Amino acid sequence: NSMLSWQRPAFHFQPEKNWMNDPNGPLFYKGWYHFFYQYNPNGAIWGDIVWGHAVSRDLIHWLHLPLAMVPDQWYDLNGVWTGSATILPDGQIVMLYTGSTNESVQVQNLAYPADPSDPLLINWVKYSGNPVLVPPPGIHPKDFRDPTTAWLTSEGKWRIVIGSKINKTGIALVYDTRDFKNYERLDGLLHGVPGTGMWECVDFYPVSRTEENGLDTSINGLEVKHVVKASLDQDKHDYYAIGTYHEKNSTWIPDNPKIDVGIGVRYDYGMFYASKTFYDPDKGRRILWGWIGESDSEFADVQKGWASIQSIPRTILLDKKTGTHLLQWPVEEVESLRLSSNEFDEVEVKAGSVMKLAVGSATQLDIIAEFEIDKKALDKAPESNATFSCSSSGGAAERGALGPFGVSVLADETLSEQTPVYFYIVKGHGGSLKTHFCSDQSRSSEATDVNKHIYGSSVPVQHGEKLSLRILVDHSIVETFAQGGRTCIASRVYPTKAIYGAARLFLFNNATDVSITASLKIWQMNSAFIRPYPNDKN
Ligand code: DQQ
């Protein structure tokens, strides 16, 4: 089906075929980035989960490797589920993962490379004493999963957390170990938040308050804040919060109880789940991987024979300007795919107008856009006490005084299909401005079996900042970063007409009261090499 094969991305990571979900155990070893992932070798829906494996020199071009781990022991017979890597100071790799046992009990298992001298880490050994952890008293046997990367305590022990829940409170259980084989459960919790349900794929890591580089997981001290992230099973979104880690009593306290884990900010307001960070010692950065699922029907996934992609890996830093947000940005290596570019400098877009951007092909793009609003018109615009939210709004077709304006991607010539990515400003009493950032799927496709939500959130804009967007378009993926990555939206869209050579790009301003000035630079993007393993008979 040629229409469905159009949807396959060209530079986002994915297996050759079948189902993929969570990123697992990312690490850098002997010059190679390793990426493992939840994978169903038998079909395009979730099930029979094993660990897929691929390696890369630059996080963009990949070589698929043989499956790293499959269910072949009683303690993971129902699935080799999500886990994380820890690199010990002597270079040894320790992998901890959740096994769903023959009785579907969630336990934690230890694995390590069979041959540490192999930079590709092709073969993996499961520890003979597995499982190393079973659900503790009071925890349901199906609510105990996804161990984190370990970090060092000042006592010289390794500490991990494991996600769970008690009633409807999502929690992170804490364990200390010296050898990754024997563990001691610590009293209390790293953290818990009522009403947030099961915490999957908990992540915990330091971010620097002063520097523009990432930090290894064990770094602690006054120059550091700590991030807790949980993937909420109940709404399938990744929520993080910034706070302070108290090593002595193994707890973490959010800076602001209103922006706590699961009730505050998200990594991404589109589809982005079960994410995981790792420290890249080669470039001194922390990198975030996230699973971007499908938002078409399961039937369509089975027809096309694959489901899900991974986000472009994102570097992650504390946003020193807001203190409340992280900044996520595509790793710089993605820029090696940039081909020819078009620039549009200070284009005036009047209220209520649409403009085609002649960039040629528009299915693989990297777009950088900046917007300035006519200052006088902004001052004159009426104040309003209306509340706005992207998801309950009428989308890019609904006009307000100060928005929407932005870029429409994957549009056809007549705009019968289009995915607008845009800002919408509301001027409140006293002239305060609140900026919203949305991605509108409502007209993205004429197909009827696809999700047509309007995604988005408010985005903090600091005094003197221009409004800015970065958009990666890759066939059925639109990954957008507003204000340098303070707020992000990844979406999957499935146009039926705006495909191949028929895809176009537009600039629009649907505000009623202001004109905007837009400057854009748009690159055509090359495809990445994502190659099968040479011996693979597939
Ligand atoms: N996916 C894994 C679990 C994890 C969930 C199973 C999150 O370990 O909790 O495939 O998507």
From TrEMBL:
Q: Keyword Membrane, does the record have it? A: yes
Enzyme Commission number: 3.2.1.26
Task: State any GO CC term.
Answer: vacuolar lumen
Q: What is its main location?
A: other
Q: Where is the Glycosyl hydrolase family 32 N-terminal domain?
A: 12-330
Cellular location(s): Vacuole lumen
Q: Which residues form a coiled coil?
A: none
Q: Which keywords annotate this record?
A: Glycoprotein, Glycosidase, Hydrolase, Membrane, Transmembrane, Transmembrane helix, Vacuole, Zymogen
Q: GO terms for molecular function, please?
A: beta-fructofuranosidase activity
- One GO BP annotation here? carbohydrate metabolic process
Q: In which pathway does it act?
A: Glycan biosynthesis; sucrose metabolism
Please report the stretch or stretches of sequence annotated as the Glycosyl hydrolase family 32 C-terminal domain: 333-524
Q: Which residues form the signal peptide?
A: none
Which family is this sequence assigned to? Belongs to the glycosyl hydrolase 32 family.
Q: What's the protein name?
A: beta-fructofuranosidase
Give the originating organism: Rubroshorea leprosula
